[in-house]
Amino acid sequence: MNPGSVAIALVNDTDMQMCEVYETAIAYAVFGDPQPDLADPWYDLRVCSVTPTSTAGPARGFSVRTTHGVEDLVTAGTVIVPSVPDAVVNRGESLPAEFVDALRHAYEAGARMVSLCTGAFALAEAGLLNGRRAAAHWLNTADLAERYPEVEVDDSVLYVDEGRVLTSAGMTAGLDLCLHIVRHDLGAHVANQLARRLVVSGHRPGGQAQFVDLSVPVTDDDSLAPVMDWAARHLDQPLTVDGMAKQAGLSTRTFFRRLQAATGMTPLKWLLNQRLAHAQTLLETTDLPIERVSEFSGLGTAANLRRHFTLHVGVTPTDYRQSFGAAPARRNALAGGRR
After folding, report:
1. pTM to 2 decimals?
2. Which of 167, 178, 307, 324 could form a disulfide with 187 if both were Cys (CB 3.0 to 4.6 A apart)?
3. Angle between helices 188-197 and 172-186 (to 10 degrees)
């Protein structure tokens, strides 16, 4: 499966402030480094700027050199706008007209449009968020809503997937969204392996999406890590809240409270997500019958797997395998790597 081309759209490539550099680096880390053992081909990345081939040093911040101009956005399959300059967000300065026009033309040409953090201001200026839900850094959502009243700004989520238009909150939420895109394009196994390489313990679900991430959110409660790892290794066995609490050496009530605080989910919801995530991996990397996938993931019958999978992932297990299942030789190699 060819994931296509990704263009990072920069308003300027000189005097970039830290937030602009951070979000740009996130997109580059996810889409710019080839991962031939996970998916070949990988994304074809280009960095596009209003002022390409710039060699001037930054006045206060950082600079990026690129030979691609904004006209190259139009031919990209996915366009990502990281944070826009602070002057645009906080002082109301206008974005370059050629930059905004290029975003419109890219969308009209069929590109998937993505913003990280304050990049939402650029998509909004291009009219691409009108009538849509959108996320941005919570510090800026009030300004975004006031400036663009036709946008349904949601400051309570990490990211929003509206199909061809996706937006995220700031900082690490941008990484969550980028990994969500990889999961949508290349499947759960590839996204999970990439997350591990980026030293991300799990990709946090951020909003309603077609192929949501079902792995455990990041948690700072390291004391629960052993029991969570233990449960993840025993998904094919009957697991109860009482049993997990006993394994953790905690009372059921204390375990329930601490796991919910750490993950944002009840223990049973967390366990269901782990089972579905394991089912996704088995569907992608093995030829096991649906009945066996359901048994190994602890969901019991094939009918139970289909019901939960359709409800939480959005498609049937069979359709998911057709979309993301590897070729037989690839499945055998992946299965061999797990032994």
Report:
1. 0.68
2. 324
3. 140
